[in-house]
């Protein structure tokens, strides 16, 4: 009998799999259990340093009153999104103490006793507060060496009620992230040659969906066999990432894996699937992954910034008109896209391929 897909919103992520933090803390753990072996060839986790350095975007220039500075910054942003899908933002205005605080308070959340966390482990993958491990253990046979906390923070703000300071810190950090994203998107609307108001309307930016994702990658006895997060692209427009000084993010550039080691206090930004769709393929979402290491636990905070959940996203109409080209992606409601992605096994750009129109 053919399997029927569960109704919308019913994809389950629950399972009896324990978090990797607990597993990593077992005193006699000398090697990873076989269901964490993702790479069988150690060379597969390797990456090189990029030959040309990762682009840097100076946010203060992007919003400068000086038209020459602004147009140079917009040109740089356009180039970074086209050639890399990835860049570091400097002069972003987010205080260093806030960036540190969000990482510290997240560590406190992961350090809560496991018995206190089941209330944050819902069945449904689109619940606004979700603590878990790997990506979607109900769908996976090989698990990732990563625990996570995913919280929907905009348009409605949610947050676990403990640790106590989590709420204020996450709220402020995510608000400041939205300000950065709005500035980047304004730059993008200019580089695409479309009105900012058209972009706002087409993407429903007033009620943009923002998801706060905290990732914990504990120390791992076999870092060249396990994976922290397998290669994937992000679903939204832009993801903003910071980390606790421990490296582990790799991005695919010109077909090769390269290390993404950020400048101190910069924010790493990557393009997501919906920027690719909206720009009709001008800005491709970038493949990236997280690797793990033997000596230091890593925490990263990835804030996913998308269109509004109920918006049906398609390539920008005026872009198609001025360029006289056909849409390369079929329209899809962002919420449905998200549900498909979160309810699947995450694998490269497989979800984006479903909406891509093949010539
Ligand atoms: C993510 C992600 C990478 C990292 O959360 O989507 O790609 O370095 N994280 O933690
Ligand atoms: Ni990602």
From TrEMBL:
Where is the Fe2OG dioxygenase domain positioned along the sequence?
207-307
The Gene Ontology biological process terms listed for this entry are: coumarin biosynthetic process; response to molecule of fungal origin
GO MF assignments: 2-oxoglutarate-dependent dioxygenase activity; metal ion binding
* Alphabetized InterPro entries for the sequence: DIOX_N, IPNS-like_FE2OG_OXY, IPNS-like_sf, Oxoglu/Fe-dep_dioxygenase_dom, Plant_2OG-oxidoreductases
The keyword GTP-binding belongs to this UniProt entry's keyword annotation: no
Q: Which domain of life is it from?
A: Eukaryota
Any one Pfam family here would be 2OG-FeII_Oxy
Q: Which family does it belong to?
A: Belongs to the iron/ascorbate-dependent oxidoreductase family.
| Protein's recorded name | 2-oxoglutarate-dependent dioxygenase 19
Organism per entry: Sesamum alatum
